[in-house]
């Protein structure tokens, strides 16, 4: 069954289900939102890769418990960032479709805090305090 392009809503069924209200924003804004989403995904993959690298390559530097903990923390942060990126993408796309104010980027404090804690932990480890 073909869709009628002259119908009021010629979007796919999935698009209508994910974004039931509002109008399509300028494609440039949607594409910018997608690029931002992909940037957050790259950051999440970097955290996950860092966690894997810590576990695989730092057995001479860290003890088993600290290495496993640091590795798990980095990977969990990566998973949280990936999920947060998807939620952020959807919230922004919905706001653009409804022509409302964009939501605050709550994912940024998470990245900042995680990076600061990770850097502080590494300083403590290399200073011999952990």
TrEMBL record:
InterPro entries assigned: DUF202, IM_YidH-like
Protein localization: Cell membrane
A Pfam family reported for this protein in Swiss-Prot or TrEMBL: DUF202
Residues spanning the membrane: 37-58, 70-90, 102-129
Keywords assigned: Cell membrane, Membrane, Transmembrane, Transmembrane helix
Membrane topology: Multi-pass membrane protein
Domain DUF202, residue spans: 28-94
The protein, known as: DUF202 domain-containing protein
Organism: Brevibacterium permense
